[in-house]
């Protein structure tokens, strides 16, 4: 199973992107998207932003579960209080694990926001942040 994760800013700009595979059930953590699928991942995730913007006003929770589907892939969303969107493209149904992953990444993102050198909507290029996101993915997904 493969995952594509993106953090999208308030201006619908990508802040952070990562691909990873499952580490559960004997997985090695490597994304196995087909080459033609890999180029579509960003498009699929960003096309779901319209649905997220419609649903966000009707949902009182931050975790919106599956907001969009494309072929056999699903897009899950976590919306922060500052309107930053965490989007995960996946092909499995594991709501609890995905919610826990989003919660850990939200904690990491909050710590990044507290950095005085970071501004909202700026790309996150930190290797430490990337490593901790991938560590959370390995732990929950």
From TrEMBL:
CDD domains per the UniProt record, alphabetical: TRAPPC2_sedlin
Classification via Pfam families: Sedlin_N (PF04628)
Superkingdom per UniProt: Eukaryota
Any one annotated GO CC term: cytoplasm
Biological processes annotated in GO: endoplasmic reticulum to Golgi vesicle-mediated transport
PANTHER family: TRAFFICKING PROTEIN PARTICLE COMPLEX SUBUNIT 2 (PTHR12403)
Protein name (Swiss-Prot/TrEMBL): Sedlin
Species this chain originates from: Tuber magnatum
